Hints:
The structure holds 2 protein chains of 2 kinds.
Chain A: H1 2-27, E1 32-39, E2 42-44, E3 47-51, E4 56-62, E5 67-71, E6 76-80, E7 85-90, E8 96-101, E9 114-120
Chain B: H1 3-17, H2 26-40, H3 54-67, H4 69-72, H5 97-100, H6 104-113, E1 114-115, E2 120-121, H7 129-140
Amino acid sequence: MKTKLLLLLLLAGFVSAGAFSTHIIHAQEAPKRIEITAKRFAYEPGEITLKKGQPVVLVIKSLDVAHGLRFRELNLNAKINKGGSAELPLTPDKTGDFVAHCSVFCGSGHGGMMLTLHVVD
Amino acid sequence: MRPPQITIAAICLLGLAGCKASPPSRFETSTITFAKHHIFIGNKDQKNPIPYTHQNWEDGKEAFSHYCVACHGTDGQNTGVPFIDHISPPIPSLASAEVQRYTDGQLKWILDNGIRPSGMPGSQGTLSDDELWSIVVYLRHLPPAGSQGTPEMYTH
């Protein structure tokens, strides 16, 4: 009888734990996806604004040659193959303005290719 | 053509004949070196915002490889540059005292603006500020001469 009760309690525990974890999965929002195109020698859009703590995925597509997107201050870097795309997950943990540069040499205007990220509360 | 015009043309041709590329004398070299260090090259006091770390050195080496290597070699000491003995004014080794005596700010100024009319071009806009400062890090810690081999562009 005691064993049956224990097994019943164990089963109830598993069921409630499963239900709870499912609840957590449902509660998590999928990170917002922000599309950015990279083309000699600019990103489109050239500025984006995010909320502090908000997880996002930057989806960067190259329309021509290989490019990169590097936030030195945030220690983030993505490289995008010629005509391809790359994803850069990002959860800003401090407010301010952060400038990213192209991190793959792409020609004469490479040094001026930048994207500004505004992080607000 | 009237005689005075012939005379003027002859003088111009003589002047041009004096412009052939030949190695500068020691006097020319020391005068120009002094002028560059003390008059022409500005930005003496700016500090490099990028500290020396292995990663920043690697970044500098990569940025340097985009086109600096065509004239300076991968090691910054002209290794493998095929025209190194046929150019005037000569391209200095970047490890030389003449170059290393520049402050970090002056090296950045040279990378930004170039040195006219030496043939050294400016890179402002072509490379980002971050990349240019990381090149300064690389210049301060150049690898041993010859250790990097011939630049790839000259190997095929």
